[in-house]
Amino acid sequence: MYFQHAPAIWRDFPELVPGVVWADGVTPAADVAGGIARFSDIAQSRLAAAAESEFPEIQAWRRAFARMGLKPTQYRCASESLLRRFRKEGSLPSLHPLVDLCNAISLAYATPVAALDLTEIAGNLEVRYATGDEEYQTFAGEEEHPAPGEVIFADEAGYAHARRWTNRQSGRSAVRDCTASVLIVAEAQHASAPADMPHLIATIAAELTAHWPASPATALLTPTAPSFTPPPPSPLL
Question: Which pLDDT score, from 0 to 100, does residue 233 have?
Answer without folding.
Answer: 62
